[in-house]
Amino acid sequence: MLVFSAETSCDETSVCIMKEDKTILSHIIYSQAIHTKHGGVVPELASRAHLEILQQITKEALKESGVKLNEINLFSATCGPGLIGGLLIGSTFTKSLSIGNSKPFIPINHLEAHILSSFFNNEIKFPHLCLLITGGHTQIYFLKNNNDITLIGETIDDAIGEAFDKVAKILGLSYPGGPEIEKKALQGDENSFKLPKPLINDDSSNFSFSGLKTSVNLIAKKNIIDHSFINDMSASFQKCVGDILTIKLNRVIAELYKRNTEDLSVSVVGGVANNDYLKKCFKNIEEEKNIKFIYPPKYMMNDNAAMIAWATILKHRNNHNLNFKPNPRLTVKE
Ligand code: KG4
Ligand code: ZN
């Protein structure tokens, strides 16, 4: 069986052709550079870029894989959450291909695809905890199995990737800010600035990052933003985020242990999971608590169509319901 999938929910235009046995015949990710100068994603520009690029990379993927369109058995696209323009473009384009070829179309939930991405290269033991950290979401899910997914905590304001991007903008670094901050932090002193850690004493598993960003902004206004300030602030901000995630994860794990949830495994998925400093923080939890932390393959961390194709294969195995409507606020329960 061959699957063709598209991902267009934000600023990556991506397509993938995957075999049911997980062989990737082609995977193209086009990161839209147009947003760099704006310091964040401009929805209208993203929609236009998806329209221009999607058809072109589809042709490239078919050429690279040596597959003909009429040989594809299943079509799928991200149908939410995300920016509605991109969702409509990706789902309408891919659904048209499916209709033209008289093959089924499977709508995919972007968050579920991120969650399932680490199942691609790891043997998952249940129960399982998933920390989803992206530009749009910061969530913790508890999975009894891959069909029983419960949201147990999330950010009440900014997402963690968004906080990285906004702090980078304050420091005059380019978009996306996460990788820039990670690089600058390597040369900075992480104890230079004391930043707030909102909600760490709260009993919930929720997060808050907007106060942290505001605090960076206030300190930046009182200082000269030179190289050493940028490096020190990047390191201090990154450490603060690492501390928050460590405290919150430790609390969730302790709660689950109280309920005799032994053999727990934890995955970290989404663009922010690329960050090596944060991975070191998770390594510490792994060693202290003797819990295995797993990650998706590198090419499935940032938005990509391979995770959509993989989620499609898993859904297909479960005879997923084929009715859908693109939804910018889709949750994992819908
Ligand atoms: O998963 P993703 O590609 O898109 C969404 O679903 O939102 O995540 C993008 C986010 C951006 O905010 C970007 O700054 C962040 O992931 N990111 C990082 C790193 N690489 C990407 N954040 C921190 N450190 C990184 N190395
Ligand atoms: Zn994403």
Report on the biggest sheet: 5 strands, mixed
The spatial strand order of the largest sheet comes to 3-2-1-4-5
> How many distinct beta strands?
10
Radius of gyration: 20 Å
Rounded mean pLDDT is: 93
Order of SSEs: EEEHEHEHEEEHHHHEHEH
Structure explained in plain terms:
The protein has 334 residues and is of the alpha/beta class. The protein contains 9 helices and 10 strands. The strands form 2 sheets. A 5-stranded mixed beta sheet has the order 3-2-1-4-5, with helices on both faces. A hairpin with a 4-residue loop joins strand 1 (2-7) and strand 2 (12-19). It binds 5'-O-[(R)-(carboxyoxy)(hydroxy)phosphoryl]adenosine and zinc ion.
Q: Mind sketching the topology for me?
A:
Elements: E1 2-7, E2 12-19, E3 24-31, H1 43-65, E4 74-80, H2 84-100, E5 105-109, H3 110-116, E6 128-133, E7 138-145, E8 148-154, H4 160-170, H5 177-185, H6 210-221, H7 227-258, E9 265-269, H8 276-289, E10 292-294, H9 305-317
Parallel strand pairs: 1-4, 4-5, 6-9, 9-10
Antiparallel strand pairs: 1-2, 2-3, 6-7, 7-8
Helix pairs in contact: 1-2, 3-9, 4-5, 4-6, 4-7, 5-7, 7-8
The protein binds 5'-O-[(R)-(carboxyoxy)(hydroxy)phosphoryl]adenosine and zinc ion (ZN).
Characteristics of this structure?
41% helix; binds zinc ion; five-stranded mixed beta sheet; alpha/beta; 334 residues; binds 5'-O-[(R)-(carboxyoxy)(hydroxy)phosphoryl]adenosine
